[in-house]
Amino acid sequence: MPTYSHSRLSAYEACPLKYRYAYVDRLEPERLPENVEAFMGKRVHEALHKLYSDLMRSRRDTLDDVLAYYDEAWDRQWSDGVEVVRKGTTLEEYREQGRRCLRDYFSRYAPFDGDKTLGLEMKLFIRIDGYRLIGYVDRIAIKNGRLEIHDYKTSRSVPSQSFFEEDRQLALYQIGVRDIWREAGHVDLVWHYLIQGLEVRSVRTPEKLEELKSSIAALIRRIERAEREYDFPAVVGGLCAWCEYRYLCPFCGRQD
Prior knowledge:
Layout: E1 3-5, H1 6-14, H2 16-24, H3 36-56, H4 63-77, H5 91-109, E2 116-128, E3 131-143, E4 146-153, H6 161-166, H7 168-180, E5 186-193, E6 198-202, H8 206-229
Parallel strand pairs: 1-3, 4-5
Antiparallel strand pairs: 2-3, 3-4, 5-6
Helix pairs in contact: 1-2, 3-4, 3-5, 4-5
């Protein structure tokens, strides 16, 4: 039985043909250049991971410690293959944007004693109607008896509130978290939009979680039917330009 994930389910929803290439045929994806926005986001995530990892070991980092770690990771991981796509923006401006994210976050939450971290980059196993799913959570914490699932974003735009009320990924993680900490009465879903300095929260009712379980099970059954029938239509649209299987696609493949 395959193990599903939010990203795997999203791949099918976005384009069944891409799903087939990746998960059924298991073809090698084209190695696309990493853009500097994604590179910066990874370095910020790593710095926040270090901050909370040290706190779990009773070590309290200073802001200078966090920024030094970020800069060191930036230099160590950088390669000429990272692309700066946005015209008029320099590499140093991107680097400074990551520093600003960390400074703003540190200023808002220091001395970081408002909650207790229970897990970082935690691997969750979730079972829904006999199907196996997996997920990784940026941070799980407990605050005043309530569990919190934290997700860090470095995207330039913030979705509308309706997105957060219907978001599947963190709600899926809530199902897995509740299976571990059954005694916790409440779970808060927390998104940190670091560029904007914005914290967004949402709560799922038991009824909403049951609806989510039903929709996920129905989606997996659709995927299983597609696999049995080997029926994976392409969805051609704006995301095709960034697809790592574009070179195979009969509708939008590049001609060398």
